[in-house]
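USER: I would love a firmer grasp of how sequence relates to backbone shape in proteins. This is the protein in question:
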Amino acid sequence: MENILFVASESTPFIKTGGLADVIGSLPQALKEHEQLEVRVILPLYDEIPEEWKEQMEYLTSIDVPFGWRNQEATIYTLRYHQIEYYFVENDYYFTRKGVYGYYDDGERFVFFAHAVIQFLANGYFKPDILHAHDWQAAIAVVLANIQKPLSDMRTVFTIHNIKYQGMMPIDIFEDFFNLDREHIGGLEWNGMLNCLKGALFHADKITTVSPTYAEEIKYPYYSEGLHPVLWQREQDVIGILNGIDTKEYNPLSDPYLSVNYRSARSKKIINRLDLGEELNFPMDLDKPLYVMVTRLTEQKGLHLVEHILEEFLQEEVQFIILGTGEKEFEDYFASLAYRYPEKARALLTFNEGLARKLYASADFFLMPSKFEPCGLAQLIALQYRTAPIVRETGGLKDTVQSYNEITGEGNGFSFTNYNAHDLLHAMRYALDIYHDPDHWQQLCSNFNGNRFSWKDSAKLYGQLYEQLVPTLIHG
């Protein structure tokens, strides 16, 4: 059995701000089960991690971390959860703060984290064959691993979860944050800045993204956030592997948040909808299909498209509920819409996991018209709950949602290609027409049963990638 170390900034069940945490929480388990690998995870020890987890952690060691012109101390704790070993890097100055991200010195914080990871490995506490780092917060671990070589035979994989966030810092802090000769600035520099994500793209042995379509999209200027020249140079080393979801966690047959559990029965979805309506004091009309969104309220999620057409669409016999928080422009828009259409629309400007599950379980349609979407988990969850997604054909949305075809009866949702408001409106109206056609609606609902988005297939692909780097990894 060979060793893999995941380096990341968040993971369920300890700390979560987005989909990255779901991946880091689920993929190691799938790799262990399906590829017989010893996978461990290393994370910062944030103040925000609940006490119930901190109380279970055991002290492992304290290490000196050379960091530019000074030494910092990192205390390493360990905790075993679901047969996976987790390491936590404690440093009061960098991680004993409220929240996870959003500080002026985030670059410094996560460069320190990377130094601590490499020093931990150099001290011999774990000897991975592959270091697998995720997103810009872990990117410098790949850079340091390649240059400093704490373990001579260790190979590196870097996964881009969202190329929009790159970890850029002024170039004049190089000597302060990096224990490297100036000859290595070139691997980090991009457009006059130090760019953590670019550094990992330059140094990693293999690069992955979270869906095959996104792996192609980011080679082009529209999606690459400026890094397409680097990705062109590394084209042969870039692979897209679709994320999965934890199908035990997201299972309407056992979900504790639901009023009534179900496998596929529409009648039980209706009971959940009525109970949700009572909870929200919202008059659910069973003659009208329910469209929902569970999302961060940001431009990326296609909300400018929704703004342009939603009031027009609400002239139809439909209802709409959105759950999420984010930019004030969108919060104000949805609050105003709900005020003007109290019988048809509701804006829940918060985030609550229980409410999210109830919306997935109650809805007929799940709206996700993203401007870009590296993978997307919400559409996969919607399909688990037998709710038809309406998506734009980008990234992982294109890879997971096939638009319903009236002629062949194939498809598990609805999609549109161009980032255009009236193309979205057309897709929503087409979905409404299918809903009112009993034969097509029944066929679409039966197609949900063929969806399989567990981590099993993805874990197999990761295992194959690891074996390319270390040929003896899986089969010995």
